[in-house]
Amino acid sequence: MTAFKPSSADIEVYAKLLSEEDGDNFNLKNWSKMQLDVPTGSKVVSLDSNPYDFVSLTYKIPGYQLGTEVTQGTFTTTLSNNIVTGSFSTVNTYITSNTLIRIYNPTFNNKYFVDTVVSSNTTTFTLPSNISNNDLVGSGLIVEIVNDKNSAFLDNQNSNIIRYHNSKMGRFDSFKTFAIKIVLKSSNHFLVPRVKEYRAIALSAWKKKILLEIQKILLY
User: Considering the entire predicted model, what is its pTM?
Assistant: First the structure.
């Protein structure tokens, strides 16, 4: 979008998604908060003194939504196994069936995956499929419980295709229908944000791959 975004203001963007196979009512779908993409050196704040100082802002579905860390202990995973073991004896007090969790390596926070919990007991919980990422095999791993389990995210285990879970925790990859909501916020009623214009782009993964191949051909 092109917008006037003074220093005391914020512009939040949300997306509502519906897969063709999802039986939920679109009007009742969850709004997923999008993430402001800030390339190095880019300007994302307008000059307060100039109401025509418009900046270019880009928002995207995040790789994962915010979560609450399970601080009682750490977790251990095994390659080609879907059972995750906790270092404490009250795992199912915090992690229950249909919980959406993010497992990550505290040393490398960008090494993670997001998945649902099938079942849990006092010391372990079970995932829908076996773990195949070597970067997330071992001990000392951290688990976060995703605060809004119906929000969309980019699934890094599936070519960063958008994934979301509906009201019954059914899993859906990609979508057919979407809506965008823009929320304008300011702590100063004399300096409020304004959106001059906006554009929404939805592109399926296979089309994106074709476009990338075309770009490679043109470069040659």
Answer: 0.85
